[in-house]
Write a structure and sequence with these properties.
- By secondary structure, the chain is mainly alpha-helical.
- α7 packs antiparallel against α8.
- The radius of gyration is 23 Å and the shape is globular.
Length: about 325
Amino acid sequence: MKVINKYFPFLEEKNISFLLILLFNLLFFSLVAYLAPIRFQTNDDVGMCRIVSGLISGTPDAHLVFINYLYGWVLTVFYRLIPNIEWYTISFCAIHIISLSIISFSILKTDKSTWTKAVFLLLFYVIEIRIIAFFQFTTTAAIGAFAGSLLLFETKKTSKVSGIILFLIASLIRFRAAMLVFLLMLPCFLYKIILQKAQWKRLIVPIMICICGAYTARFIHNQIYKTDQEWAYYMEYNKLRGRINDNPHARGIMDKLPEGVSQNDYELLLAFNQDGSVINLEKIKKIHSVLYSSITLKQKLMQVYPSLLTYKLNWG
């Protein structure tokens, strides 16, 4: 620390500590990504990476479907400048490393005992190892939104601005994940506001900026897709297809398929290999209607326990 102060006297001790933590997390992330090795957990990330890099259309495209168009547009700029770098993955890695550093620094600077800090850090890094090994945009958005939310509690304006920016970036990557994190953080926000009534504006203003900014970006994203008929068609089609494929009772309507849809066509749809000219938007709307009208409340409730069991098994 003294050596750093000697050559960089303009840096505060707090900033030096954060830089050291940032360096540690850079090494930690790189090591885990190399040993795990890092890979995308879902095909959605693979598909979006191929779209934005130009592998599908021949030119970088910002229509990433699940990720906000604005975020995709920024990535296309980098892909056009230096196409040989995988910017989609690199941007996620950067968000993880920065968020890791913010969260771990927030834990270390608390006035809790050393053992308490050690337990929380251990738990956090174990979870992060799992997230790195099974990389995806949803968990990237969640950890970014969490780190951004923590910065809102800071007193310095620069920290609050950084928190707003990080939260908004997270909302662009996965809007629902960022909003879920905000919802989970809401009791902490309310507690802080009630505890420091005289300084409530210092927290409520950045919170409102985050929420309004996230919804504004979401609105812009939706409007961009609505202006293009082909993408508007695809978005509606993909939304319904996802609800059908993700439904655990999807195979229970084989004898109730709408007219014009054969069992073979439906099997291909469930296997993500449907023919779009056969299972078009009109037919997929009919399938969706039949599926969701045939599920009883008892069937929905019976599916809760298997879903929780699957989640438990997947996480070991």
